[in-house]
């Protein structure tokens, strides 16, 4: 797809995507054949008796549905240096650390060149559609990205977050330039050892190249909001750096200082311009287009657990379009946003039928229907997945991935809803993670349920002109009866009365029948709202970063398990006020 000039031809990309998705069923079969031919000699496939067969029926009857736990021993052997064909025909070159934030420890997943190929393919595809609706001019991108530390596994493989593996890949820079996404920060900033310093310099680079910035992006919306909140804190210092042409003393890393010295020169006119623009903003509304007058849009993953940050993002974005980026995971990519004009709340992802073989477990009511799930868990009945082109509009599914990076019938753990079809490939909406967040006894509440409940209570805060900065939850089983604990960080001082109302509203907004009935009979205790001090969620982010997470891949864990001691400790030691619901008294 890369043209001789090094530029991608967006029309050609669109043409190819349209052709491929018109025949998604056939492409799926061919993709499976290719995966199984390339990896047929891998121990994992041999063990399951595939015997070189590559048709979907044999594949599905021989190879079981698995979770990460089932593959962990194989991945561990690879990480420990086993170079035989364990999961793939060609050796795995690196290891990615998937977030796994709920349990507080990252999971290892394989990364290889094929995964890099599909990453760039997804980027190219969504770029082509975005560029058709919002053409970019020549310039640069303010990419608020960070690379986590890479370390070597026992077997000598480089391990880091998936984004780190992508950013560090030798092809990355050239291919991003080809899709007009050249980062305005030097590598030393992206790969800097301390993300606070990197962030400060990303902002400074953005200001230096202010007029040239064509769009602002990060992997997740959270990082964009976090970056501009940081700007609001340090804007005067940033202006001073530009005025003097001297980098703030808070940047201590020598490699960052040296790289920044090459692009930072005294520019009092620019400094004044930025300073005055900031002074003229009302409560920082429209900050991003004020700083980057030629930016065409803001891009990043804004769906799923990122939805709660949209309000703040829209505030900083003013009239500038915001659009949700693609759908994938450390394990592999799934779909591209080919309808960039849709607001993030309605964003869908068209599955790329040639980057993996996808199956879908119909969920119907099963997510709510605990009893049925318990029975199938108990009897170990395998749910019957359907193929990519067999899914139905309006239905929810759990997605199963088979790809070129050693995953075969892998349960990613995500719930998606089919919103329509792009030609014959489905357009998926991300719903939530399948695993339960909050459960005390017969109740079952997912990430989505928590989000809805928080949204309802948040409206009471908004009436008081207060903002919810971030939130998480915990099922407290140590008390008798167990109860839900919701942690809130609020920007401002809320009255006792409002917080009591919020607490009751949170409790009432969990409408799951199991929860409501258990609350009524007091088998679940009153919901507890704990308001934490400002900066608590920043401490949680810092904690994950200290464990090797990359900020650009960070997702606030929406439920903190009892085993995640350190995060629970951060939360509990920062509680300012506590409220108990009287909703079911
Ligand atoms: P990670 O394990 O850090 O690679 O995160 C992957 C997970 O992030 C996916 O399995 C999803 O749950 C979530 N995710 C990725 N892309 C999106 C998206 N576009 N919308 C919502 N959630 C997403």
UniProtKB/TrEMBL annotation:
Q: State whether keyword Ligase applies.
A: yes
The entry sums up its family as follows:
Belongs to the IAA-amido conjugating enzyme family.
State any GO CC term: cytoplasm
Domain GH3 C-terminal: from-to ranges: 448-561
A Pfam family of the record is GH3_C
Q: Which InterPro entries match?
A: GH3 (IPR004993), GH3_C (IPR055378), GH3_M (IPR055377)
Tell me the leader sequence span: none
Domain named GH3 middle is located at 350-433
Protein name in the entry: GH3 family
Question: What does the record give under GO molecular function?
Answer: acid-amino acid ligase activity
Mind listing the UniProt keywords for this protein, alphabetically?
A: Ligase
């Amino acid at each position: 797809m890369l043209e001789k000039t090094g530029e991608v031809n967006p029309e050609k990309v669109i043409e190819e995507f349209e052709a491929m998705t018109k025949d998604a069923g056939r492409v799926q079969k061919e993709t499976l054949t290719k995966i199984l031919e390339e990896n047929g000699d891998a121990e994992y496939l041999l063990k399951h008796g595939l015997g070189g067969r590559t048709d979907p029926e044999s594949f599905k009857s021989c190879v079981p549905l698995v979770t990460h736990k089932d593959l962990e021993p194989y991945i561990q052997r690879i990480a420990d240096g086993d170079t035989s064909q364990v999961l793939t025909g060609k050796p795995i070159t690196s290891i990615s650390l998937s977030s796994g934030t709920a349990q507080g420890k990252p999971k290892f997943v394989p990364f290889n060149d094929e995964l890099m190929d599909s990453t760039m393919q997804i980027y190219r595809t969504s770029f082509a559609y975005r560029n058709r609706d919002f053409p970019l001019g020549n310039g640069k991108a303010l990419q608020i990205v960070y690379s986590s530390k890479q370390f070597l596994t026992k077997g000598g493989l480089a391990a880091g977050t998936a984004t780190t593996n992508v950013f560090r890949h030798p092809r990355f820079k050239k291919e991003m330039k080809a899709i007009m996404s050249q980062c305005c920060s030097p590598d030393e900033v992206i790969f800097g050892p301390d993300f606070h310093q990197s962030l400060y310099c990303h902002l400074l680079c953005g200001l230096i190249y202010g007029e040239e910035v064509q769009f602002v992006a990060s992997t997740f919306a959270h990082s964009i909001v976090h970056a501009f909140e940081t700007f609001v804190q340090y804007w005067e210092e940033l202006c001073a750096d530009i005025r003097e042409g001297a980098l703030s003393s808070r940047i201590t890393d020598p490699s960052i200082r040296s790289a920044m010295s090459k692009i930072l020169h005294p520019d009092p006119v620019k400094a004044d311009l930025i300073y005055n623009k900031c002074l003229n903003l009302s409560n920082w509304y429209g900050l991003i287009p004020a700083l980057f007058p030629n930016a065409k849009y803001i891009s990043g993953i804004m769906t799923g657990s990122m939805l709660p940050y949209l309000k703040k993002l829209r505030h900083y974005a003013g009239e500038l379009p915001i659009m949700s980026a693609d759908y994938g995971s450390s394990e592999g990519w799934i779909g591209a946003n080919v309808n960039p004009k849709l607001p993030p709340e309605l964003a869908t992802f068209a599955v790329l039928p040639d980057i993996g073989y996808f199956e879908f477990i119909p969920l119907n009511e099963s997510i709510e229907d605990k009893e049925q799930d318990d029975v199938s868990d108990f009897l170990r009945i395998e749910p019957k997945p359907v193929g990519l082109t067999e899914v139905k509009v309006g239905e929810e599914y759990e997605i199963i991935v088979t790809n070129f990076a050693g995953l075969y019938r892998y349960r990613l753990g995500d719930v998606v809803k089919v919103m329509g079809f792009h030609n014959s490939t489905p357009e998926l909406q991300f719903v939530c993670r399948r695993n339960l967040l909050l459960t005390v006894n017969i109740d079952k509440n997912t990430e989505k349920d928590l989000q809805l409940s928080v949204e309802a209570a948040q409206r009471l805060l908004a009436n008081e002109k207060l903002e919810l900065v971030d939130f998480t939850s915990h099922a407290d089983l140590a008390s008798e009866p167990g109860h839900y604990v919701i942690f809130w960080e609020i920007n401002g001082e809320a009255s006792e009365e409002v917080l009591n109302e919020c607490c009751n509203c949170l409790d009432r907004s969990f409408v799951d029948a199991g929860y409501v009935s258990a609350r009524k009979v007091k088998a679940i205790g009153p919901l507890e709202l704990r308001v934490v001090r400002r900066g608590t969620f920043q401490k949680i982010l810092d904690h994950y970063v200290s464990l090797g997470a990359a900020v650009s891949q960070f997702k606030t864990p929406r439920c903190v398990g009892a085993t995640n001691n350190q995060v629970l400790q951060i939360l509990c030691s920062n509680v300012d006020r506590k409220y108990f619901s009287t909703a079911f008294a």
